[in-house]
Amino acid sequence: MVAVLIDTVAWVRIEEGRILCARPRGKDVFYIPGGKREGAETDLETLLREVREELTVGLIPETVAHAGTYEAPVDDRPGAAVVRMSCYYGDYRGTLAASSEIEETAWFSFADRELVPPVDQLLFDDLKAAGALR
């Protein structure tokens, strides 16, 4: 059986060696902010919309830069869906605030790696190796 591919984009925001994570309402796990594309949206269009919807800020399109793309199974069941997460850096305008769809935000260090899904953990590993996460 071929696994379902869940195609997502994520915003990588690092400040003082910590990465911004968000926990959606009704979930018990934190994620890198972002989400799935709608229709024929590009990565950039999806990223701008998702960050605005989740964190109430506007990314500045000309500052958005690809940080890496990662793939990992959603969980360890055979045939589990696979998440592809295309990650982007970018500056923003406004004040970061959790929207109505986000229960809470947090700034995670590498020590918090186990609190995020497997695909996010791959990003944590690369950021740690590059010296960006403490």
Topology:
Layout: E1 5-11, E2 14-15, E3 18-24, E4 34-36, H1 43-55, E5 58-59, E6 65-73, E7 82-89, E8 92-93, E9 102-108, H2 118-129
Parallel strand pairs: 1-7
Antiparallel strand pairs: 1-4, 2-3, 3-9, 5-8, 6-7
InterPro entries: NUDIX_hydrolase-like_dom_sf, NUDIX_hydrolase_CS, NUDIX_hydrolase_dom
Protein name: NUDIX domain-containing protein
Domain Nudix hydrolase: 1-129
What labels would you give this structure?
134 residues; alpha+beta; Nucleoside Triphosphate Pyrophosphohydrolase; 4-stranded mixed beta sheet; 2 helices; 9 strands
- What CATH calls the topology is Nucleoside Triphosphate Pyrophosphohydrolase
The CATH architecture? Alpha-Beta Complex
> Main β-sheet: number of strands, strand sense, barrel status?
4 strands, mixed
Seen as an oligomer or otherwise, the chain set is single chain
Query: H/E element string?
Result: EEEEHEEEEEH
Organism: Streptomyces globisporus
InterPro entries: NUDIX_hydrolase-like_dom_sf, NUDIX_hydrolase_CS, NUDIX_hydrolase_dom
Keywords: Hydrolase
Protein name: NUDIX domain-containing protein
Q: How would you explain this protein's 3D organization?
A:
The protein is α+β, with helices and mostly antiparallel strands. The protein has one domain: Nucleoside Triphosphate Pyrophosphohydrolase. 19% of the residues lie in helices and 35% in strands. The protein has helices at residues 43-55, 118-129; strands at 5-11, 14-15, 18-24, 34-36, 58-59, 65-73, 82-89, 92-93, 102-108. A four-stranded mixed beta sheet has the order 4-1-7-6. A three-stranded antiparallel beta sheet has the order 2-3-9, with no helix packed on it. Strand 6 and strand 7 form a beta hairpin. Residues 1-129 form the Nudix hydrolase domain. It comes from Streptomyces globisporus. Keywords: Hydrolase. One of its GO terms (molecular function) is hydrolase activity.
